[in-house]
Amino acid sequence: MEEELISIIVPVHNSANYIGETIESIEKQTYQKYEAIFVDDCSTDKSVEVIQSYQKNNNRLKIIKLKRHRGVAIARNIGIKKANGRYLTFLDSDDLLVEKKLELQRDFLQKNNYEFVYGSFRYINDIGNKISSPVKVRSKVDYRQSLLNMRLLTITVMLDLKKIPKRYCYMPNVMNEDIATWWKILKRGYIAYGQDDVLAYYRKTKKSRSSDKGKTALARWRLYRNLENLSKLKSMYCFCNYVIGAIQKRMVRWEPYYEYVANDLQVLVATQNLKRDKQVEELLQNMNMKSNYLLVNQSTESQIDHPFVITKNEKGLSKSRNLAIQHSNAEILLLADDDLVYQSDYVETIVKYHNKYKEADILCFYVESKNKNRKTKRLPTRKNWFFKGNESCIF
């Protein structure tokens, strides 16, 4: 599939706290033929300096500095005017892209011969943690449907400028300028097609423009009456549907949502009679240890000086494990004997299933015997909140 340039338009105003993360989400894209045009709308913080620090090592990052504060619509329009790509997409300076966002949308456009696409997204908080389940979108929407329920987030949009003239993409300088623009495009007979894939993360803060629901609703009413010139009756009909759609959009699972990573796992190993540091290294190698670990060594003659080894002369497996648990500060604890050999992907497997079953307090993985003639014993799968079993083998 032919690689063509994608232009990413990023309006910036006092986003120094977030713009670095935003840029990194661009640089991590699997599709690398892009230009990112940052239009700084007279920031008074260090937003420009942050962008310039990344710009030193990435010539695909471009910055335009406005001489006076113009607002987000004008900033986007200036970026659109300077765009050189066939495809046009948008990103706000505090939001993030999924790593495959550009690749997925470019492929979706080209394979289906579409001109206007958008996708699902998730909310994140100030520190970047996911705080909602995915906000799903319709498979397609035309102008009439968009007046009633426009569940379309600007940072998930991508347009093909070979099929949609750039002049249609310029945004009016009003509140909800993006919605007004999509109406303008759809009104000309185009259809927007939705992707089920989560493409971006929208940062929800107290200072977000959309946080003032009353102001946002009033702006929508004005768009119906003053921009689209709808009658009062039709405006009221559309507005009621808009309110219902807004409620549905927010009927996502709002809760702290943390994705476990490899460093959250710690293996707690009960062992005995290790006397030298070399024996510790040999044990870790034999176990194929690829994660954080803590060893409790039952020995009376140990000379081991190792930050992750606790030596005690008390005997008893339960005492060793309790001691390891007391000294661990990890999120995921894996109890282990010293004769186990882990599969090479055990870290990824454990983290994957802990992220999949967040409601479970205990996950049980099964053990494969080295004796091929011996059947692997599996526990019955439990479906309650407390315990899940037989998800994958890690040994």
What this model shows, in words?
It is a single chain. The chain has 395 residues and is of the alpha/beta class. The chain folds into two domains: 6-249, Spore Coat Polysaccharide Biosynthesis Protein SpsA, Chain A (Alpha-Beta Complex); 262-393, no CATH class. It has helices spanning 19-27, 47-55, 72-82, 101-112, 143-148, 177-186, 213-227, 232-249, 277-287, 317-327, 346-356; strands spanning 6-12, 34-40, 61-65, 87-90, 96-97, 116-124, 140-141, 158-160, 192-203, 265-272, 292-298, 309-312, 332-337, 362-366, 387-393. Helix 7 (213-227) packs antiparallel against helix 8. The model is unreliable at 382-387 (pLDDT under 50).
Describe the structure in brief.
The chain has 395 residues and is α/β, with parallel strands linked by helices. It has helices at 19-27, 47-55, 72-82, 101-112, 143-148, 177-186, 213-227, 232-249, 277-287, 317-327, 346-356; strands spanning 6-12, 34-40, 61-65, 87-90, 96-97, 116-124, 140-141, 158-160, 192-203, 265-272, 292-298, 309-312, 332-337, 362-366, 387-393. It folds into two domains: 6-249, Spore Coat Polysaccharide Biosynthesis Protein SpsA, Chain A; 262-393, no CATH class.
